[in-house]
Structures are given as C-alpha cells and as structure tokens.
Amino acid sequence: MNQTVPLETNSQIQVQVPSHPQWPTMTREETENLKNRIRDLLKAQDAVLVAHYYTDPELQILAEGSGGCVADSLEMARFGSEQSSRTLVVCGVRFMGETAKILNPEKRVLMPDLNATCSLDEGCPEKAFSDFCDQHPDHTVVVYANTSAAVKARSDWVVTSGIALPIVKHLAERGEKILWAPDKHLGRYVQSLTGADMLLWQGSCVVHEEFKSVALERIRRLHPDAAVLVHPESPESVIELADVVGSTTTLIRAVSKMDNQEFIVATDGGIFHKMQQLAPGKVLIEAPTAGEGATCHSCAHCPWMGMNALQNLEQVLLNGENEISIESAVQEKAVIPIRRMLDFAKSRGVGMKNRGNA
Ligand code: 13P
Ligand code: SF4
Fold first, then answer.
1. CA angle, 342 as apex, 189 and 102 as ends, to 5°?
2. pLDDT tens string 65-74
3. Same domain flag for 124 and 57
4. Ligand 1: distance of its center to the CA of 308 in Å?
C-alpha cells in the first residue's frame, strides 16, 4: 500500500457564513396546527420529506411521522431514490437536494430554502476544482457528497462520511492515486487509516472546525467516564481524542449501543434530538467550541441547516417555489459517481437501514 505524504493545494477560497436564522417562537398548539397543515399538503401533493439529523427536531419528528425519513447524507440519497412519490422535499442543505434531483431527475425536488448551502460546497468552486483535476490527470477523483452537482460531475467517485473509508481503502488496494476534495480533515483522517496516496483540497466545515482539543481535554477530565464522539470533519487534534469517529449515524448508534452513561459529542447540536430519542437515559454533553458567545461560528450549529423550518416548509408546499433544477448534461455525468457509491454501499452492506432508528 502507498504511504506517501499528502500534498496540499494552495486554495484559499473565502466563504461567506450567514448568521444563524432566528425563527419566530410558536406555541405548542401553533406548532401542532402547522405540522397538521404540512401533513395535509404532503399528502395532497404526493410528497415525501427527507430530512437530515442536524435539522430542527420538529422537522425530524414531522418527517418520520409522515412516512419520510431522518438520516445521514448517504441514507438520504438512498431513501429518496427508493420512493415512488412524485415530489421529494429535502430538509437539509443544498447538496442533499441536488443529490436527490440527480438520482431522481423525473421527480420534483423542493427545499425550504435554496440558500441553505455548506462551507465545503462553497469552498470548492467548479472552475478551480476542474483546474486542479486537470493538473493531476493520473489521479482518481473522489469527492465528498458536500459539493455542487458540477463538482460531482467532474468526479469518479462520490463518498459520504459513512462510506469514505471503505471506498478509499478499495481504491488504495487497487493502487490508485486519489485526488480528494473538499474536506481536508476528513481527507487526512481517511488517508491516515488507509495509507492511500491522496492529494487534498483544503476545504473545511465552519461548524466542525470550531471544536477545540484543549477545551475538550478539560471537559473530559471533568467527565472521565464519558465517551468522546467526533464527526471526522473535525480537526486532527480533536479526532485524536475520540473514542468513536464516524458519520452522524455512527455517532447516534454509539450512544444507544455503548455502555457509557455520558457522551461528549463533537458535531452539530441538531443530532442531540435523535440521540436523546433513542437513549433517553444517557447524558449528552456538547463538545466545546472556540467562542464564548454563541456566534454562528461557535454555536456548533450549522447556519445553513438552520434555514430549514416548519414555516418555510409550508410556504414551499403552498407555492411550489424552491424547486431544484440541474442541467441535464451535468445530471447525466454526476449520477455516475453517485450511483457508483450507492452500488458499492449495497455490495458491502454499508450503512443499510441507517435511518430513523439509526
Ligand atoms: P453525515 O453524512 O455524517 O450525515 O454528514 C453530513 C454533514 O454535512 C456533516 O456535517
Ligand atoms: Fe456543511 Fe458543515 Fe453544515 Fe455539514 S455542518 S452542512 S459540512 S457547513
């Protein structure tokens, strides 16, 4: 197996991070009435909700209660393509909606807010990425799902955090050199476990980048029996302190399966809803971030995931706006590496049934 040192690109792309959206507070009765209206609209429009674990708990409850799903990004892609409904409503970030549309071009795919993007996607523009690929034509191009449709169209493989390791291991065993984008932390982590020969794009997630190892060590000393759960978009020094590193599904599963009673969790706080639901007796502690105040850089909650709410979900179902559209030439190319990932996952039984009950 190759053991080369990863080279780095010099990409320094600035990403604009919005402030965290503030939604008007609703009473319990108002919330339930709104959910009932959305349920009726979903039924009337033959629509299914596909939500990510980082979204508002009310959306997660509604998605599961109305025949949709709550899942990680791998399972969201698979679930969407198994539905016979005419419309998919994706509550998550834009790459998740685009993946649903790429896999299901005949369906109508709506999102509560099309501005719900992702710092990894924003930090990997198609032109710069394409130039990078052109400079390394002997490399297999592996891109994280958190990218635009155009970047996926330029790739050989798409991966999510739930399947990156076995896919890169498989490619490394075949002696392939890998050009990896955009998340440098996930890329470095995968490289360290597989020994793959990887060129890394220098993107990062603004949410996970904020977890800090010194503060995490301090909290761990206060909770010596707690298991530390870390999403691999976090920096290396944080990953090094982890008892479990993995996709959102892996982290949720760890809370219900491990004997520990306490968990320090280094990922977006939206995941706590599902963890609490599956393991109500366990104590969940947020891993510390850089900021003292809850700025959108330091609150450990993705500002783009926060753009999904019951209010704008009802609006898109009423007005049919925010439909995802992908140029057919891009869709035809991008579907190939996504299908390759799903076929690989199926052949290895990776991540099967990773939805709802994790
Ligand atoms: P998962 O695929 O693990 O759900 O991660 C998606 C994501 O955007 C994490 O920040
Ligand atoms: Fe992107 Fe990070 Fe938000 Fe996930 S948490 S969608 S990687 S910005």
1. 105
2. 999 999 999 8
3. no
4. 16
